[in-house]
Give the backbone structure.
Amino acid sequence: MPLEAVHGLLESFGQAGIPVWIAGGWGVDAVIGRQSRWHADLDVALSAEDLERARRMLAEAGFTIDVDWRPTRLAMRHPDGREIDLHPVEFDGAGNGIQRLLDGGVAEYPAADLVRGSLGDREVRCLSARLQATFHTGYAPTVVDHFDMHRLAGATGVDLAAVYALTGQSADGIVEELVAVDGAELWTATRGRGRPVVLCHGGPGLWDDQAPVAAMIDDVATVHRFDQRGCGRSTGSDGITVASSVDDLEALRTHWGHESWIVAGHSWGAGLVAAYTVAHPDRVDALVSISGTGCAWAWHGEYREERDRRLGADAERVAKLPRPARRRFVVATDFAGPPQVDAALDGDFDVRYDVNVALTADWRRVGPEVGERLRGLPVPVVAIAGASDPRPVWAATEIAASARDGWSFVFPDVGHFPWLERPELLRDALRAVTARL
């Protein structure tokens, strides 16, 4: 739900004289004072005496009841996709409240925890950091819960329940190693302690650029990076296919002796780890797609249109440039804010366009089947996307939306490189995945 839609609903409540306090994910953002991710719905607490009036107001605006668990909650949905979850609270004369729960218990809303925060440029009523943290206990937290709570604690210092604990250790130095696989040697870098994670760079045909991402979690995980076959410091590219790339990844797991690991990839790397997950589901603790594009090719037309729109009058001229020169202009369109082209193109290696052509063609052939097979696997899937990536968000999040256990983070003010534009959001999302597992 866009921030503008939230502002519109809050204005409607205000005009109707119905005070509401924002809770849930938007409530966390209100306490922090900045939107952290895309939210599917808006949670609000309101007086139980105002519930029926709020229901009628929303019904007149086109909302219909989606979930009716009164007196605990009433969820309503609009045909345009807006969703709102109403939590009725019974207030006493001192302003303290209780919400009656389905199990017969109550949730307490002390008057001191009904505070004010901000969303965008507007002051709003919301629940305090302490109350938000309290309401995120008593159940098994999701990846999104871990993300929200660690964002909340980082911004406010509020104490979190033990279930959200993520104690890190100082990581040792980076260990670089050339690992022999079938017909090639792969350059690798490893740092950290704890649950194993592998990060796969994008491309195809590029080299490892995931060091900043690894540094976000290498105090809580053992993080492996590598140059894919034929790229950067790795050798061998004859006959390269998606299947051979998957085999390389499995050879690395075997070499390092991990029973299973979290597989994460950026851009093309997200497709690679999806193919690996389908081939070796028993070896995958979770799949993390960072700025991926799903498993089919339907996104590419929308991407080219948006890329050319951002290039503007230069689009035709850029299309005629040699590949190396053209790449700088294209990468500049990948940012929500000022382009950080030099940082995105970090590295002194030659782009392997032959690898790019071979793997792109093969991925277009096998990707749809990978997507279909992935749907039925009991593997947690997390999709991380930037709302301002020229590649469509639906393509980035589809892999999680269609999974049996899937979660998506869509970050505002972020394009294709979240570690360059909003590193704190990517860090918290990755640490949430590690904490949940």
Notes: The chain has a mean pLDDT of 94. The chain has 16 helices and 17 strands.
